[in-house]
Amino acid sequence: MKKRVTLTFPKRSVQMPVTYRLAKDFNVAANIIRAQVAPNQIGKLVVELLGDIDELEAAIEWMRSQDIGVSSSSREIVIDDDLCVHCGLCTGVCPTEALTLDPISFKLNFTRSRCIVCEQCVPTCPVQAISTNL
Q: What's the pTM?
C-alpha cells in the first residue's frame, strides 16, 4: 500500500534517522518527495510510504509517539487553463516530466499520475497559472 503523508518534526527530533527506522523496524520504504529540515528548526518532510497496511499503521503510530506530526497529504497541482500561455517554462523544472509541451500543438500537457507535487513549477510560472489545491 502507498500513502503520502507530511511529517512535521519538533526542533529536538530533526536529527532522528526516521527513514532508517521506518525501513529497519517496520519494513516501510519512504520516498522523500520534499524536505525542509535544518538543525534547531521545525522540520517538514513530504514522503510517500510504501509497505503492508499493518506495518504502515504501526510506523505512523510510532512516529506520532515520537512527537512527529503525521498528516495525510492530498495536495495536487492545479493548472488554470484560462491563465496558461503554454510558454513551457514549467517543463524545464519538472523532475518527472509530468509537464510537457505537445510537439505539434505546443500546448501544455499535464500527466497527473507522474506528478510528485514537488511544486517546483509553481514559482516558475510567469503568469501564476499553476498552484496547489490546498
A: 0.60
